[in-house]
Specification:
Blueprint (H helix, E strand, L loop, with lengths): L6 H7 L3 H16 L2 E2 L7 H5 L7 E5 L24 H13 L12 H4 L3 E5 L4 E2 L11 H15 L4 E5 L1 H4 L11 E5 L16 H11 L11
Parallel strand pairs: 2-3, 2-5, 5-6
Antiparallel strand pairs: 1-4
Pfam families: UDG
Keywords: Cytoplasm, DNA damage, DNA repair, Glycosidase, Hydrolase
GO cellular component, one term: cytoplasm
C-alpha cells in the first residue's frame, strides 16, 4: 500500500482537542519553565524525514532533559554537544556490527534522518531536569497515531524497538507488512542485556536490499 500521504496530512488530521490541549499546555509552561527541545525543534523528525521516504523507524522515549541536548530526533544531539552514553553505545554496536573502528566526532543524526530513518520519540517534550515529566500530557496519543499511520500507509518499514518502552508499540505494527527488530535499550544500564551484539544495523540493510531499497549509510554522521 503506497498511497501518497504527507506529514501535513497526518498532522492536520490530529488537530483534535487533546492535541490543542498539548499545545496550550506547552505555551503556558514555556512562560515559566524551561522546556526541551526548543519550540522550533519539537517536530524536527517530521521535517527531516518525508513520510514517503521512511525506511526505518527508531523509537526513543522522551527527549534529553539537560540544556541544549534535545533537538527533536530520538537519541540525537546537536553537533556541538557531548555524545550521550546511549548514543555512544549505539556507535559501539555499529562499529562492532560492521567490524569497523570508525571515530564518531559528534552525536547529530540528521544524516540518518535524511536517508529515511525516522527518529521518533514517543514523548516529544520534557521539562528541564525532569525526565518523563511530560509523559502524561497526551503525546502518546499523538505518537501512537503516527506509528499507526506509518503501519497503514507504508510498506516494509523496519521498526527498531530498543527497550521495554519502545516494545509496547508492537501492537500498533502489522508484522506481515513490516519488520520488527527488538532488543534491550542501548543505555549503559541495559545495553549488555542484548543490545550489544544485536547486529540491527546490518540486519536492517540486508532487509532493505531484499526489498530493493537503498541501504542506510550508518557511518554518514
Amino acid at each position: 500500500m503506497n498511497k501518497i500521504l504527507s506529514w501535513k496530512d497526518v498532522l492536520s488530521q490530529e488537530k483534535k482537542k487533546y492535541f490543542i490541549n498539548i499545545m496550550k499546555f506547552l505555551k503556558q509552561e514555556r512562560l515559566k519553565k524551561i522546556i526541551y527541545p526548543d519550540q522550533k525543534d519539537v517536530f524536527n523528525a517530521f521535517f527531516l524525514t518525508n513520510f514517503n521516504d521512511i525506511k526505518v523507524v527508531i523509537l526513543g522515549q522522551d527527549p534529553y532533559y539537560s540544556k541544549n541536548q534535545a533537538h527533536g530526533l530520538s537519541f540525537s544531539v546537536p553537533k556541538y554537544f557531548t555524545i550521550p552514553p546511549s548514543l555512544k553505545n549505539i556507535y559501539k554496536e555499529l562499529n562492532s556490527d560492521f567490524k569497523k573502528k570508525h571515530i564518531f566526532n559528534h552525536g547529530c543524526l540528521k544524516n540518518w534522518a535524511n536517508q529515511g530513518v525516522f527518529l521518533l520519540n514517543t514523548i516529544l517534550t520534557v521539562e528541564s531536569g525532569k525526565p518523563k515529566s511530560h509523559s502524561d500530557i497526551g503525546w502518546n496519543i499523538f505518537t501512537d497515531k503516527v506509528i499507526s499511520v506509518i503501519n497503514l500507509y507504508r510498506d516494509s518499514v523496519i521498526f527498531l524497538l530498543w527497550g521495554n518502552n519502545a516494545q509496547t508499540k508492537c501492537s500498533l505494527i502489522n508484522n506481515n507488512n513490516h519488520y520488527i527488530l527488538k532488543t534491550s535499550h542501548p543505555s549503559p544500564l541495559s545495553a549488555y542485556r542484548g543490545f550489544f551484539g544485536c547486529k540491527h544495523f546490518s540486519l536492517t540493510n540486508n532487509i532493505l536490499l531484499e526489498n530493493k531499497k537503498k541501504p542506510i549509510n550508518w557511518f554518514l554522521i
